[in-house]
Fold tRNA-dihydrouridine(20/20a) synthase.
Amino acid sequence: MTDVKVLNENSVKPAIDRRFSVAPMLDWTDSHCRYFLRLLSKHSLLYTEMVTTGAIIFGKGDYLGFNHEEHPVALQLGGSDPSDMARCAALAQSRGYDEVNINVGCPSDRVKNGSFGACLMAQPEVVARCVKAMQKEVDIPVTVKCRIGIDDMDEDADFARFIDIVADGGCDTFIVHARKAWLQGLSPKENREVPPLNYPRVYALKQARPELSISINGGVKTIADTQAQLNNVDGVMMGREVYANPYLLASVDSEIFGDHATHPISRREAVIHMQQYIEKQTDPYFKPWHVARHMLGLFQGQAGGRIWRRYLSQNGTGKNPDPHLLMNALAAVEAAQQEIEEYNAKKESV
């Protein structure tokens, strides 16, 4: 077991405010994505993609790397062996992460075959042992992201039992996807959409266990939805809607966190900043598309949004991608917007 319990000296570690967070999304919320999202919101808690203990312990790559500008940032960990989980939690703390989160919600076959993810809903004692082992090695929060049940589990009694056992193991923070996961018969994508949402069950958990921090996940798509949810729970986790329409984060700091002093970054400023970020990359295998793919939705609902997406998709990939991809795409968007403004001005003058 590692004996590391020292935080990275270069890390700036603001207090975690759980009112709003961005969900861990496999293949999506990588370090480039999180750097971009942090430009839009200074206070939202960001989560990594799920990383398995096996990848961290035995993998050849650096699965714990992140930009220090991402804080506050949490590592989501996949695993079920308490010793391995504790070892990886200690490594995460030594690298400067603000939190380690245990994945008890992913329904994919790969995760299930590895004995972690949503199948652990049926093994609360295992999750509790992991929590205890991890907390012995770290000072940062150890949290759990789960569902309200799997397959034929009862959404009331069995879910309450899961929470009670894991909470008794030392966990005081749960992020609950307010749907069951059906491990038999539904794909991971269907498991995000088909099982009905049961918000009242999560509200009931908060009422029954007010000492626990409870965040809700699933189906929340707007700032207004978030504000409504915060009347019943401590925090809201939003996932794919943020990815599809990332600029909604620009209003989170003021509308959710009450920070009216920080001026939100404009789309144009975000593009310029991310172009500079691209130009600083030194990895020989890096391509502008590794960043641009996370920005496809930046102009969602705006004039020129389709032009933006098309330019990035057509010029960001291939053997010779445009090195000035973002700025050239922005120029195309602004040219289209200018044409629309001129056309509207002519219509009004007639």
